[in-house]
Write a structure and sequence with these properties.
- The protein has about 200 residues and is α/β, with parallel strands linked by helices.
- It has a domain at about 1-10 and about 70-110 and about 130-200: HAD superfamily/HAD-like (Rossmann fold, 3-Layer(aba) Sandwich).
- It has 9 helices and 7 strands, in the order βααααβαββαβαβαβα.
- A 7-stranded mixed β-sheet has the order 4-3-2-1-5-6-7, sandwiched between helices.
- Helix 1 packs across helix 3 and helix 4 runs parallel beside helix 9.
- The termini are close together.
Length: about 200
């Protein structure tokens, strides 16, 4: 039994924080898991910047409302789900993801949740489990699934390397250079062909 585990941002949809950085004019918020391997450190830094600028959940959700999936992403996901099971495992949050899941046809998503004050201030966040991507892949393997994973960032590497097969998708040159053993693709058609070869 195969199951494909996909990252969300950078693979199926644009990076939410980069979009919000452009919308808000705060350049520092362009930093993502492609730049910072320590997710906890990255999120605490982001929340500090939001507090400093008096920004909350509503402003980010307003930006997300205008974000569409990457060109070809929904078609890729539809085709992928016609040949094997797939889930999205993301470090994003329920409060961010729902509009994007609707545009992708409501695929299964495992993600985290934000802690939000009554005034809309983001006060913290709750991770679904430690090392959520690797932990989820190992849990799927423990119930009989062979996992195939694809992602673009540092926080995807553990789930990519832990499975039956794994791929980098539209990643950075530095991550490709550091992990030459992981096949890297730029086009959905090539990623789909690579996954199809593993599930047949």
């Amino acid at each position: 039994m195969n199951i494909v585990c996909l990252d969300l941002e950078g693979v199926l949809v644009p990076e939410i924080w980069i979009a919000f950085s452009k919308e808000s004019g705060i350049d520092e918020l362009k930093r993502t898991t492609r730049d910072e391997p320590d997710y906890d450190k990255l999120m605490k830094w982001r929340l500090g910047i939001l507090k400093e600028h008096g920004l909350g959940l509503k402003q980010i959700q307003d930006t997300i409302a205008g974000i569409d999936p990457l060109p070809g992403a929904k078609e890729f996901l539809d085709e992928l789900r016609s040949i094997t099971q797939a889930i999205i495992i993301s470090d994003t949050f329920d409060q961010f993801a729902a509009p994007l899941m609707k545009k992708l046809g409501w695929p299964t998503l495992f993600c985290n949740t934000l802690e939000v004050g009554q005034d809309g201030t983001i006060t913290g966040y709750k991770m679904r489990c430690p090392q959520s991507k690797l932990t989820t892949v190992k849990a799927l393997q423990s119930i009989g699934f062979d996992t195939i994973a694809a992602g673009d960032s540092f926080n995807d590497l553990a789930m990519i390397e832990a499975g039956k097969a794994g791929f980098l998708f539209r990643t950075t040159d530095s991550i490709k250079a550091d992990h030459p053993d992981i096949p890297a693709y730029e086009e959905y058609s090539d990623l789909l062909d690579a996954i199809r070869a593993q599930v047949q």
